[in-house]
Specification:
Elements lengths: L1 H24 L8 H26 L4 H30 L4 H8 L3 H9 L1 H19 L4 H18 L4 H25 L21
């Protein structure tokens, strides 16, 4: 029963994370998340990552090495996503424009590359890699895999130029893709419950006198 509860909690995380990220887009002001949007974007990665641990468990049996490499890359992308969300929060809190904060990062080129400019793109790239992993293992319907890949490509395509309408479309595609994955995990959680083996009907214990 405990295993089923954990699996279904991960299924909820697969929906909650993308929904929180999609909600954060509604708080954009002139292409910036602001304090509330940045907070939601950063927090969304917590349930999202928890949920994707379940997807890792589902796929690693058929591709253990690829799954392990993907998980490490995904967690690095989570760091980037959280960093960008917190940057938007701090920019709003300290009344700093996005251009000014980017200019300030120039004083720390290596650190900014590791935490932001490389880690940030790693998140959507990890989702695209997940779609590739699903395609190889054939554990997910092709249409769902292609939907996830489309969302992974649309996500940076909307965030880099900060086009709000495209961002909402990308968010919707990702929510739809992960909602289906969540449904798969929720339905399969019951598989973790194995009834204890009992004596067959009509049989008598060998120890009976």
């Amino acid at each position: 029963m405990d295993v089923m509860v954990v699996r279904r909690a991960k299924a909820v995380g697969l929906v909650l994370g993308p929904v929180m990220m999609a909600t954060s887009t509604f708080f954009w002001v002139d292409g910036e998340h602001g304090a509330t949007g940045g907070t939601l974007a950063a927090l969304s990665l917590v349930p999202w990552a928890f949920g994707l641990l379940g997807e890792y468990d589902r796929l690693r049996g058929q591709a253990p090495r690829l799954s392990a490499a993907w998980l490490l890359f995904f967690l690095y992308g989570v760091l980037g996503g959280v960093s960008f969300g917190l940057r938007d929060f701090y920019d709003a809190a300290f009344h700093v424009s996005q251009a000014d904060s980017v200019h300030a990062f120039a004083a720390y080129p290596l650190q900014a590359q590791v935490i932001l400019w490389l880690a940030g793109p790693a998140f959507p790239l990890s989702l695209l890699a997940l779609a590739g992993l699903q395609w190889v293992t054939r554990r997910t319907p092709r249409w769902a895999t292609l939907l996830l890949a489309a969302g992974a490509v649309a996500f940076p395509a909307s965030r880099i130029p900060r086009i709000e309408l495209v961002a909402h479309v990308a968010d919707f595609v990702l929510v739809a893709a992960f909602a289906y994955l969540a449904w798969l995990h929720w339905a399969r959680a019951q598989e973790s419950i194995t009834p204890p083996a009992g004596p067959r009907a009509g049989t008598v214990s060998s120890s009976a006198g």
